[in-house]
Amino acid sequence: MMLRDLEQVCEIEKSIYGENCWSRSSFVNELNNTSSVLWVLEDRITDQIIGYAVLWIVDLDGHISNFAITKNRQAQKLGEQMLIYLIAKTIEWNLQKLTLEVRVSNLKAQKLYQKYGFLIEGRRPKYYVDNQEDALIMWTPNILDSNYKNFFETQSQLLISSLTKSQNP
Ligand SMILES: CC(C)(COP(=O)(O)OP(=O)(O)OC[C@H]1O[C@@H](n2cnc3c(N)ncnc32)[C@H](O)[C@@H]1OP(=O)(O)O)[C@@H](O)C(=O)NCCC(=O)NCCS
Predict the structure, then answer these.
(1) How far is CA 162 from CA 29, 68, 149, 155, in A?
(2) 102-114 per-position pLDDT tens digit
(3) What is the pTM (predicted TM-score) of this model?
(4) Largest alpha-carbon pair distance within the chain?
(5) CATH number for position 146
(6) For residue 46, how far is its CA from the centre of ligand 1 (angstroms)?
(7) Domain extent for 87
(8) Fewer Cβ within 10 Å of end Cβ, the chain: N or C?
(9) Phi-psi region of 9 (alpha: psi -120 to 50; beta: other; left: phi over 0)
(10) Known catalytic residue: 101?
């Protein structure tokens, strides 16, 4: 993600989270933070931004602090592809574990993260100020462990074969 991406990113952020969205200055702060990594997912044909992710690196762990796919491109396996990319990068960087907070009501996101080995390990009561909703705290096991790497490889391959099949039925 670059400064020039923020107009599109903030538009998506606002359309998903409304008044509770990250402000432009929150993204600017993250871009200036050497412990943060920010990605955008672009449509190959239109060059439009269709998703983005923000990762904080804290010691040897990665904290996913923002992760979204634009509304009209959800449910097309793009979130899964972006998560695979993020996990592959963090393995490459030798980070050990990934964590995030997710709304109790956000079953869609929980299912995606669970598919890649994140487990619910805690709860932050009333974490979200808008509606006082609790956050679930999810963690991966050690992503550098060979068991996790094998599991991750299998999940990624399954996605690739299902995408290939749907493109060449
Ligand atoms: C959550 C989000 C990132 C998922 O991305 P997506 O591109 O819509 O999801 P994908 O098409 O890649 O689906 C991958 C997996 O996610 C889960 N999932 C996605 N949509 C789902 C739904 N409607 N119901 C249940 N699970 C769902 C499933 O595990 C799915 O795998 P499966 O199809 O094999 O069951 C996206 O919907 C989004 O941006 N939502 C709004 C922002 C948000 O909630 N971000 C996460 C904050 S923690």
Answers:
(1) 38, 22, 20, 11
(2) 999 999 999 999 9
(3) 0.97
(4) 47
(5) 3.40.630.30
(6) 23
(7) 3-167
(8) C
(9) alpha
(10) yes
